[in-house]
Amino acid sequence: MKIGDIDLGERPVMLAPMEDVTDHSFRLICKEQGADMVYTEFVSADALIRSIAATTRKLHIDKAERPTAIQIYGREAETMVEAARIVQEADPDVIDINFGCPVKKVAGKGAGAGLLRDIPKMLEITRAVVNAVDKPVTVKTRLGWDHNSRIIVELAEQLQDCGIKALTVHGRTRSQMYTGQADWEMIARVKENPRLTIPLIGNGDICTPSQVREAFDRYGVDGVMVGRASIGAPWIFRSLKNAASGCDAPEPSMAEKFAMLRRQIAESIDRIDEYRGILHIRRHLAASPLFKGIPHFRDTRIAMLRADTFDELSAILHRVEHDIIPELSDSHKL
Fold first, then answer.
1. CB 3.0 to 4.6 Å from 112: which of 106, 154, 158, 303, for a disulfide?
2. How far apart (Å, rounded) are the C-alpha atoms in residues 239 and 308?
3. CA–CA dist 176, 170 (Å, integer)
4. Kind and range of the H or E element at 126?
5. Chain mean position to CA 73
């Protein structure tokens, strides 16, 4: 699969853009674990052109994580064009436009998935950004605004006509937010359209190797994007990539998984500061499957999510890794 001149190989598996999740450290670890392409946190066009420091920091890309896409969102073509030109100076491999974020503070203001209610403006923004930059431009969007306006098959063609080089479709409407199940049959209908010639990337509920194989074999997508299942579990890309490519790379050990979480904590602290860095990483710890299914874990979980120093948090993780999990494993042998 290619996006412009960027060759991602056969059956690529990608890290989805997620606010407060896909920072530089997390992207790099996911890349090391097998992600074929990674996306930044989404970037507000309005904040970018005002040079808001927290936003401009999101543009940093390490050469080891490439290929990397920077995703932008906004509601006006002029602002989006100016932001895209700023982003181009950061030298991403791809510039992605967010037409899929469903949260109220974005969609409710007419950006992200909110533009699914104003298709002419969505197409205006897309054409303007494509014409303003030299980098390949892609789009990520949803099936439609609600169940009665699932317009993605026709919309995909229209976006292609604007000049985008690939399209990612999340298999839900904006009204669904993240509830219910992603409709991969609808994603397949987009791919089956003979007039669609750009690569189609499917997104939504990809958590297991069998789901990755089904996405490619049954639904026919060119690539797969993984979002929420990777939070607190960057190692998921190793098994998903194995399933997609037929490789047989060994699964990371429990020690390696804990080492990845510790690395995220340390690098988050280095990037910001100890207090805010730990606040940032709590979402990964809360979601990590490493701690699911451990009996009587509530008090430990609370302590872990309340820890506000690296030493305190590291000590809790050490106890879980070396005391609680081995004890649980031993009890299963009885």
1. 106
2. 32
3. 11
4. helix 119-132
5. 15
Catalytically annotated residue among 30, 101, 207, 247:
101
> What phi and psi, each to the nearest 5 degrees, are found at residue 250?
-65, 145
Q: In terms of Cα–Cα distance, which of 254, 283, 255, 212 is closest to 34?
A: 212
Over residues 165-180, the pLDDT tens digits come to 999 999 999 999 999 9
Interatomic CA distance for residues 39 and 17, integer angstroms: 5
Nearest to 130 by CA among 201, 187, 72, 194: 72
Condensed to tens digits (0 to 9), the pLDDT of residues 226-259 reads 999 999 999 999 999 998 888 777 889 999 999 9
Contact between 195 and 154 under an 8 Å Cβ cutoff? The reply is no
Residue 327 has pLDDT above 70, yes or no: no
Whether residue 60 contacts residue 103, with contact meaning beta carbons closer than 8 Å, is answered with no
Burial class (CB within 10 angstroms; exposed 0-12, middle 13-18, buried 19+) of 244: buried
Confidence of residue 334 (pLDDT cuts 50, 70, 90): very low
Tokens describing residue 8: 């991602």
Place of tokens 């030298």: 91
Helix residue ranges, H only, 140-219: 152-161, 184-192, 209-217
Tokens of residue 324, six digits? 């609680």
* Element holding 163 (H helix, E strand): none
**Burial profile 81-106: b = 16 or more Cβ within 10 angstroms, e = fewer:** bbbbebbeebebbbbbbbbbbbeeeb
Whether 247 is catalytic: no
Task: Sort 133 into a burial class: Cβ within 10 Å, 0-12 / 13-18 / 19+.
Answer: middle
User: Rounded to 5 degrees, what are φ and ψ at 287?
Assistant: -95, -10
